[in-house]
Design goal:
The protein is an alpha/beta fold. It has 12 helices and 17 strands. Strands 1, 10, 11, 12, 13, 14, 15, 16 and 17 form a 9-stranded mixed β-sheet that branches. An 8-stranded parallel barrel has the order 2-3-4-5-6-7-8-9, surrounded by 5 helices. Helix 2 runs parallel beside helix 3, helix 4 packs parallel to helix 5 and helix 8 runs parallel beside helix 9. Bound molecules: pyridoxal-5'-phosphate (PLP).
Length: 392
């Protein structure tokens, strides 16, 4: 995104501010479609649940992967057909099941035999079920992001998965098998290893028609074309339907978080205290993520300070309140910084910690800027408290 545009948006809407380029999201969808023309794509809503993004994806024919009643409600509200929605996750409480049943979602991925026992008491009319397998692969990512190891809480061990899948087949509801091995996976070959394991199980499940390889594609550079070259022919040969569930890869690079430098404190290490921190961007504190951060300078000859080295920090009284560590920047007080790759797991993980106010969100659509969510005000912090007062 161009610095002039970003500077203008920050001046108009204030900082911190999330900006998403919907056309960039659309380009990722097209690239995925081209690599996998016959697959069904389910966007993992938790990456970024903004209504504007969901609506754009719905118009592009992308479905949604939803793990909470809030995500399912958002996907439906954005116009995603229920048939294009896949409900998953280790929870699936009664509220989520009730909404999924009323909507008659296309697919559910079961994480445990207990979930199936709950679903089958009152089945949605036509929903088909996948079984999530814990394949025991190490995706070589941050431990918080590795979800397919033998110790992970997700899915069923292979033999248990086959047993549950047979029960589903007997009930006429079996769709297939599902693996989501983790996030920020850089090597497409990992999915081939996962498919190797699944094929062994599918041999025992003649009624399975679908294989869901999950999401987890790393940004910025996951090679979806290589993934396609590695798995498409194998899946076609077995006459299976392929499902994919990318979240981050579709939206991360399409978004930036704009933040203003409040103070530059001398070091070493220097500290750039910004108006955005862990309440607006949690990934640095939670995962040690180090997103690219650059100074936004609309005109070449704008004042630049001396180059310094240090941490880009947030405004709260908390050591983990940080955007980036050990950076070299020439930013001075009042400068605007852009935290890049912020379109995924940015606003979706933002909180009101320290009663900090969540940022506004702006989208660029055909090059035109549009405010899609207001900055929170203090009144938003106590709105639900006021509503709970007995006199209300
Ligand atoms: C989070 C999640 C995804 C998306 O992961 P990304 O790394 O954002 O692509 C897909 N499927 C499941 C089951 C998930 O939990």
């Amino acid at each position: 995104m161009n610095d002039e545009v970003l500077a203008r948006l920050a001046a108009t809407y204030g900082t911190p501010l999330y900006v998403y380029d919907l056309d960039a999201v659309g380009q990722r969808v097209e690239r995925l479609r081209k690599a996998f023309p016959e697959a069904r794509h389910y966007y993992a809503v938790k990456a970024n649940p903004s209504g504007a993004i969901l609506e754009r994806l719905a118009r592009a024919g992308v479905g949604a992967e939803a793990i909470t009643v809030g995500e399912l409600a958002r996907a439906l509200r954005a116009g995603m057909p229920a048939g294009d929605i896949l409900v998953g996750g280790p929870g699936q409480d009664e509220d989520l099941r009730a909404l999924a049943r009323a909507a008659d979602v296309g697919r559910v991925s079961l994480d445990s035999a207990g979930q199936w026992a709950a679903w089958k008491r009152d089945l949605p009319p036509t929903t088909r079920f996948l079984v999530r397998v814990r394949p025991d692969v190490d995706p070589n990512t941050h431990p918080h992001l590795a979800t397919g190891t033998a110790e992970a809480k997700f899915g069923l061990a292979p033999d248990d998965a086959v047993e549950l899948a047979r029960e589903l087949a007997a009930a006429g509801r079996l769709d297939g098998l599902h693996v989501h091995a983790g996030s920020m996976i850089g090597d497409p070959a990992l999915y081939e290893t996962i498919l190797d394991g699944l094929e062994g199980l599918l041999d025992r499940l003649p009624d399975a028609t679908t294989v869901d390889l999950g999401g987890g594609f790393a940004v910025p550079e996951f090679d979806v074309e290589r993934l396609a070259a590695g798995v498409r022919a194998r899946i076609r040969e077995r006459r299976l339907t392929l499902l994919l569930e990318p979240g981050r890869w579709l939206v991360a690079d399409a978004g930036v978080l704009l933040t203003r430098v409040l103070w530059r404190k001398p070091g070493p290490p220097e500290h750039w205290i910004c108006d955005a921190g862990m309440a607006h961007w949690l990934r640095t504190a939670l995962y040690g993520a180090e997103p690219p951060i650059r100074v936004v300078r609309p005109n070449e000859d704008a004042f630049a300070g001396p180059l310094g080295r240090g941490d880009v920090d947030g405004p709260l009284c908390e050591n983990a309140d940080r955007l980036g560590r050990d950076r070299r920047l020439d930013a001075v007080e009042g400068d605007l910084l852009a935290v890049e790759q912020a379109g995924a797991y940015g606003m979706s993980m933002a909180s009101n910690y320290a009663s900090d106010l969540r940022p506004a969100e702006v989208v660029l659509d055909g090059g035109r800027a549009r405010l899609v969510r207001l900055r929170e005000s203090p009144e938003d912090l106590w709105r639900l408290e006021d509503a709970a007062r007995p006199e209300n």
